[in-house]
Amino acid sequence: xxxxxxxxxxxxxxxxxxxxxxxxxxxxxxxxxxxxxxxxxxxxxxxxxxxxxxxxxxxxxxxxxxxxxxxxxxxxxxxxxxxxxxxxxxxxxxxxxxxxxxxxxxxxxxxxxxxxxxxxxxxxxxxxxxxxxxxxxxxxxxxxxxxxxxxxxxxxxxxxxxxxxxxxxxxxxxxxxxxxxxxxxxxxxxxxxxxxxxxx
Length: 200
Hints:
- Helix content is 0%, strand content 40%.
- With 200 residues, the chain is an all-beta fold.
- It has a 6-stranded antiparallel β-sheet with strand order 14-13-12-11-15-16, with no helix packed on it.
- The protein is elongated.
- Mean pLDDT is 66; it is low at 114-135, 174-183 and 191-200.
- InterPro entries: Translation_prot_SH3-like_sf (IPR008991).
């Protein structure tokens, strides 16, 4: 399983079998067969075969807070603090502010975002893009998006315009991105919010 999402030193990992199954830890060292993992629940470094480990949370993962004050909060991971073992989770469509919680208090969300084709053109939309070479992109303006690839993976924004085929200018909404400038991003590197918990 580690081969599916290759582990590196300082990655968060989950033990999927053995006496410590379910424990979350941080990779401290590794070789082609084994890894030393600092387990966050027992505060110990334990040696595991790589096949017992699964790379855990990464920026862009859809997660749910499973404990403490923000229990039930669902959103995307926008940043991971590897020194403090915390993650920042944000869903700007339901909450103006992100939450920061211990990585031990989150789990993958059971609500899986659905990826769909763009919705049909809405005649009530006041601003539309004109003179596009491909009508597929003529109704993306003002849609909310989340990025699916680095370096902005997990960040939210709003499409401002699509000045060239397949590339959108977007305005960042994520707090973790400190810029007032428009970003140019390939359209295939983002997903668009259609309805609650539904993306395409």
